[in-house]
Predict the 3D structure of the following.
Amino acid sequence: MADETREVEPGGWREAVAAARDDGFAFLDWLSAVDRTDDAAAPGFDVLCHLYDVSTPGALRGLLLTTRLPEGEAVQSVTRVFAGAAWHERETHEMFGIEVDGFDDGSGLGLRPLLLPDGFEGTPLRKSFQLAARASKPWPGGKEPGEGHDSAKSPSRRRVQAPGVPPPEWGPR
């Protein structure tokens, strides 16, 4: 079973999700984002919504809707289409910092924290997020000679730096 993929313009996000639901894709599996801010051609975030058509036993069909959202722009809420999208939209807002226009989960409390502790600062699923733990101890993924923080650079290989590892001049070591 291969999922179908549809690319959608950001301004038509809510309508595309509603149209997919009306086409039989009535089961919301998940909604999230992928940080693509390092894409030179079209930087931003890919907002993704995975839906299933479960109407025919034994013939499950999947649909992946995707839109490229420029950084700093808001995505349209789909809570009026799928009430269960509220949790996913709150998580996407909290982890990526993406604003969600028209969000309404019925509580009247808006896009409030969902997973992170009170007082947490930052958006941990963005590529630009600096992991403090990585600043204070070496990355355990350095397995090859010359790839660790404390060893000299290998003359034949480029040093690998894991995502979230701040540059050497950042913070205490």
Observations:
- The chain is about 15% helix and 20% strand.
- The mean pLDDT is 87.
